[in-house]
UniProtKB/TrEMBL annotation:
EC number: 2.4.99.28
Pathway noted in the entry: Cell wall biogenesis; peptidoglycan biosynthesis
Coiled-coil intervals, chain numbering: none
UniProt domain Glycosyl transferase family: residue ranges: 110-274
Catalyzed chemical reaction(s): [GlcNAc-(1->4)-Mur2Ac(oyl-L-Ala-gamma-D-Glu-L-Lys-D-Ala-D-Ala)](n)-di-trans,octa-cis-undecaprenyl diphosphate + beta-D-GlcNAc-(1->4)-Mur2Ac(oyl-L-Ala-gamma-D-Glu-L-Lys-D-Ala-D-Ala)-di-trans,octa-cis-undecaprenyl diphosphate = [GlcNAc-(1->4)-Mur2Ac(oyl-L-Ala-gamma-D-Glu-L-Lys-D-Ala-D-Ala)](n+1)-di-trans,octa-cis-undecaprenyl diphosphate + di-trans,octa-cis-undecaprenyl diphosphate + H(+)
Ranges for domain Penicillin-binding protein transpeptidase: 356-618
Listed name of the protein: peptidoglycan glycosyltransferase
Keyword RNA-binding: no
InterPro entries: Beta-lactam/transpept-like, Glyco_trans_51, Glycosyltr_51/Transpeptidase, Lysozyme-like_dom_sf, PBP_transglycosylase, PCN-bd_Tpept
Record organism: Parasphingorhabdus flavimaris
Amino acid sequence: MLERTPDSSGKRRWFWPLRSKPKADTVFYEPYGDAIPPRIDEPIAPLKKPRGKWWWFSRGAAAALFVFILLVAYLAITAPLSKSLQPIVPPQITLLTTDGQPFARNGAVVDDPVEVAKLPDHVTEAFMAIEDRRFYSHWGIDPRGLARALWSNMSGSGMMQGGSTITQQLAKTTFLTPERSLTRKAREMLISFWLEAWLTKDEIFERYLSNVYFGDNVYGLRAASLHYYYRQPENLDLEQAIMLAGLVQAPSRLAPTRNPDLAAKRARLVKSAMVNAGYLTQDEADRLGTPRLDVRAKNALPTGTYFADWAMPQARALTDLSYESLTLTTTLDSRLQEIARRAIASAPLGQAQVALVAMRPDGEIVAMIGGRDYAKSAFNRVTQAKRQPGSTFKLFVWLAALRSGMDPDDKVDDSPITKGGYLPKNAGERYRGEISLKDAFARSSNVAAVRLFGQVGDRAVIREARNLGIKSPLAEDDPSLALGTSTMTLMELTAAYAGVAGNRWPVEPYAFKKDEQTWAEWLFDWPGRYKADTHADMEKLLRSAVNEGTGRRAMLSIPNFGKTGTSQNNRDALFVGYAGDGDDRLVVGVWIGNDDNTPLKGISGGSTPARIWKDFMQQAVQARKPASSRKPVVRPDPEGPVVPLDLPEIPDIPVNVGDTEVRINGDSGVRVGTEIGGVPVDLRIDGDGVAIERRREENPAEADR
């Protein structure tokens, strides 16, 4: 016998749940004799039974249930239920030019969601029979369906329906990636339970039918019924409903527009499933035929252009994700786009690629050519290609000089640089000694640019580039930056020139009309501006580059401003500038180069790019007549003699006759450049009389860098 003696202190003791209770003092007595325990105040505790399998199983099941509840709670808090209301792909957007001409369409064909209560019974029955006939009786997971699918796979009898329920399919398409893994399947099941807990069966079914893919880039039952049979889903007959229900398994392969035989074979399986589910009798199924398609093409538009590829992300950002197909008007001008296309098509490019972008001074893009042939290469050389800008970058060097207090008539040394680690050379190694900033810019002097860069400092030059919207990396403490060795896109560069054209920076290019700026936006988003004299001086430099310098082939008979650029080893040739006045002013950038960065042959910034720019501007700005909707204004006839607005006091004279160029300078008189018998000559008329001399053409291979 044994006695369990309690604690003599009489105090009640408390113990932690996981700690063992101290053992009581135990006194042993002889098992025989008259001896009895002196004191027994409590019954002897029964011996503990060993823990069996059921104990461990119950505890494990409880722990698993607890973890499952935590997972469901986590999903309920973090998983966005509203996502199941949205289409699983971006809806279709059609883009229009400014005059209403559609030119691109992108995205899936979607339509309004369906309501189960308004659909005929045979429509919902067809989908349930082939996809999930026990949909209204399970909790998101159908064990019988899984077992049936597994047995069909193992026995090789073929599957009339998949193992996934409609709820699982909605969970997979809406919330998960298409990867095939046990982890993804487990998450799919958890989300299915969650959907079943938060939504009614009809809501789950509606969202499934409104999202499922039916082939031919069509998503949702309403869009599919309109696409294949040109009728609303509420009006589908039994044969049509059966055909559509059969497409869900493999829509791309079973689409009746592509594989009518496979679609008909699948429809027969749906009929058999409806018979097995009790929705049809065998006689009714046998009498059903194959429905006739009624496809009315509405999407016979190209799905992409260079401009559309650039504008579409902006279109998505402007709209809420919904089932509605949208039609948006862009800033693309069909007239200007066609002019750009013709100007490039007539240019002697050889095997080189080309890009052109035209915008208003505020950044409104009106024309864009990203390459020679979109069908062969969708790579947009306006927005994606980062190339060296060459001497077009000198805009920022001269701006920094003007803002430091210098004047266009100030002198700069145009002699060879013989000392230092960087020894640039002028094109053709032609040097002129001390010349004005204006002449150095017009003739694109490399040594003058590097000397100016050294005077104002790299920070000042980079500051001007950043002010005008250049976001690409720019090398610091590198004098070659003055000659445009840091890469950037043509869009960036042209937008920077637009900032000068409108004296309002930085300029953000855009593809859709902007809303009127509110007073708060106007107050807190004040644009940068140059002082009037600084802006006038910069325009004087840009005008001299076209009328007197390397950009003479771009000269127009209206105000024109621009700069040529040719990168190292003739890998890139550019001309960027602007022309016109008021609402007609356009800023245009042209680039020519090879995608593999090999040197160009016979092309420089002052040759083919300048000619493309001129051809575009002559038709886009110079020859444009005022629109009837505008207020009447006094303008010269663009088809006849015009006034060179650079010097309005000079009488009207005819210019641009063929390839003839007229240059008027108040100091040196009138200089006419033309060809006689194929020989380029200059006719000079000044105070000394008339002189004719042969013009020395610049070697394209030695054009400005």
